[in-house]
Amino acid sequence: MKNILKKISIFFVTFLFLSPVFITNVFAASASVSLSGGGTVNTSQSISISVSVSASEAYNATTVNVSFNNLTYVGVSANSQWTGVEGPTRNGNNITFSGAKLGGSFTGSKNVLTINFKAPSSAGSSSVSASGTVALADGSGTQVSAGSKSVSYTVVTPPPPAPTAPGGINVSSSTHPDSNSWYSSKSVTLSWKISSDVTGYSYILDQSDSTTPDNTSEGTDLTKTLDSLKDGVNYFHIKAQNSVGWGSVTHFKIQVDSTQPDPFTITKVLDEVSSSYVIYFATNDDISGISKYTVNIDGVDKGEQKSKYTLPLNAQNVIVTAIDKAGNIKESTIQLSQNSSKSSTALVAEDSSLYQGTSDIIMRIVQFFGPIVILIIVIVVLGIVIFKKVRKDQKKKLEDTSSDNPISSK
To answer: What is the pTM of this model?
Structure first.
């Protein structure tokens, strides 16, 4: 019994002696550093690693040291919430950073650095390790070790990609290079390029924008000339085949207009103010449309002009050319006769267009006033007839009166 009491006494004395150390160890602040990443990566793959610290009590400063092996350094950035920063700085395969949270503190985990690497170009292994400390926000800046952490990478060479069907084909044309432009030629030469694993091509030409060629190969030629294209919008459709199968379809637009603009005439009108002729002209092109008109006067090219064009006083021979968007042309000519011996403000009176204009005016007057004139004539004629008949009746009455009452002579 005495031995038992003695042992209990020794235990309590020992406990009281060691209790400050025990309490300190139990309730002391702890901290740790952590790294993201690790595992298997492909050769030359980009790698991003985050370095963080955490503590069991509030802290407001940290120092972090990072080292790496068999990785290509790309860059590093610090979390902007850390102020009073020193670094990060890199020296060979080592990166150092010290930062503080001025006017505040952190609790729990907080990101410190983000580091970017690139895996080696050959298979192997790589690693990154980090260690650090934190300073407690206890008014004394008590330093607490955050320990260390490492991650490793297994770098492997990726297998070659699985084969796939061919993609779209890059088609071009030496004769009709711009799909949004019009061309007058009905013969087109096309060429294309694709990867070397292609075993054949299938293609077709029509005027639909979504046709899919059949699955019959036309061979492996990389160029094709097609003749007798239709006027309008044509489409060349092509797809390629390899060991996997047929690929997607490429549609190449070809715009053809081999037809001249419609025939047209030039209308001339005399401008009485300037005593010059003004010409008017217009035509249609049903396929590509009219691009412009040019004017040539007595062999001199006046370039592109618009309708209602005023001619020089001495113009004799005028040619207007209509040009469509494919470059097809249609000409119209008008001959003018002008008397150069007269003053510059006078034109030849014999011009048939003036006679024609005068005749038209007379005809319009006759057409408008003719019925009125005829009505007046009829009324006048009837008035004359009636007047004569009345006069005749009056004369006869007088004669009859004279015969009934003869006057005897003495």
So the answer is: 0.54
